[in-house]
Amino acid sequence: MIMRFIYQLGSPPYFYALSGRLLPWLSGLCFILFAAGLYGGLVLAPADYQQGDSFRIIYIHVPAAWMSLFVYMIMAFSGAMALIWRIKIAEIILINSAHIGAVFTFLALVTGSIWGKPMWGTWWVWDARLTSELLLLFLYLGIIALYSAIDDKRKAARAVAILALVGVVNIPIIHYSVEWWSTLHQGPTVTKFDKPSIDTRMLIPLLLMAFAYKFLYAIVVLLRARNDLLWRERRSQWVATLFSKEGA
Amino acid sequence: MEAFLKFIDMGGYAGYVWSSYGLALLVFGLSIILPLKEKRQLEKRIRRIIQNEKSVSK
């Protein structure tokens, strides 16, 4: 049953039709999550007792940083699937995640810098957390550049999959960097095993924003993957049928 | 009105807070709009390809 679903998902026309039906629902949910998260984060949550209202940057910065790691893990996982089983959809998910992954990483770095100025007194320090996150941005950009440099897109996808898998070593380094090395960056407040050390009124909007970001990621990947698929399969029967149905 | 101004001021951190939110809006907006624009161009190009193939086969 599950294998059949995965097999079907690997078929381009099925993936194209299913994602087309999913997108309006994903967009609606994403919008609601953003609205609730922003209202909770900007209006309902109280100001921080140390950082005042500047802490509200957390609702942009932390989910972006989480997503920068999450998207990379999805890419590495798709890369493994693409290398082992040669699933075309896995290649497409891999390469079309790179742009939005880079966007999340860029946003985490810049908003972190904006937050660092009033709180730490500096825009940037070359500590382990910031440097390894910057390295992650270069990994994303390297993946995008490598993919566009190779003309044969199946070959390009294999090269990119290998690069994505090698880059995985950076992920635990980023995550544990604040514990392994001394730094200006604060330690984790949410992803601890005991009770999170953050007020519930601050925590709930953060989780809402984190889910909103996940939906946003899904929407962007599907939009890009559909374009990619349409172009790769432009000479296939299902694309021709699709366009004749639309009354081209 | 006063409450609104207080909200905008963000306890004196307005510049830092709103530039972060503004940047997020900008990059997320672009991430959605660019693939949608690309799709419209792709559809045009694919229509042309299909048209050409039809005229060749005739």
Question: Could you characterize what this model shows?
Answer:
The complex is a heterodimer of chains A (248) and B (58). Chain A has 248 residues and is mainly α. Chain A is built from nine helices and no strands. Chain A has helices spanning 2-9, 12-44, 58-85, 88-120, 128-149, 153-166, 170-180, 200-232, 237-245. In chain A, helix 3 (58-85) crosses helix 6 (153-166), helix 3 runs parallel beside helix 8 and helix 5 (128-149) runs antiparallel to helix 6 (153-166). Chain B has 58 residues and is mainly alpha-helical. Chain B has one domain (2-57). Helix content of chain B is 90%, strand content 0%. Chain B has two helices and no strands. Chain B has helices spanning 2-9, 14-57. The N and C termini of chain B lie far apart (71 Å). The A-B interface holds A 42-43, 47, 52-54, 56-57, 60-61, 64, 99-100, 103, 106-107, 110-111, 114-115, 117-118, 216, 219-220, 223-224, 226-227, 230-231, 234-235, 239-240, 243-244, 248 and B 7, 10-13, 16-17, 19-21, 23-24, 27-28, 31-32, 35-36, 38-39, 42-43, 45-47, 49-50.
Core attributes:
heterodimer, A: 248 residues, mainly alpha, globular, B: 58 residues, rod-shaped
Quick take:
The complex is a heterodimer of chains A (248) and B (58). Chain A is mainly alpha-helical.
Order of helices and strands of chain B: HH
**Radius of gyration from the alpha-carbon trace of chain A, in angstroms:** 20 Å
Mean pLDDT of chain A: 89
Quick one: how many beta strands of chain A? 0
Q: DSSP helix count of chain B?
A: 2
Domain module count of chain A: 1
Strand content of chain A: under 5%
Helical residue percent band of chain B: over 70%
Count of folded domains of chain B: 1
Helix content of chain A: over 70%
Q: Based on CA inertia axes, which overall geometry of chain B fits?
A: rod-shaped
The best one-word shape of chain A is globular
Number of helices of chain A: 9
Extract low-pLDDT stretches of chain B: none
Separation, N- and C-terminal Cα atoms of chain B = 71 Å
> For the CA atoms, what is the radius of gyration of chain B?
23 Å
Regarding quaternary structure, what we see is heterodimer
List low-pLDDT spans of chain A: none
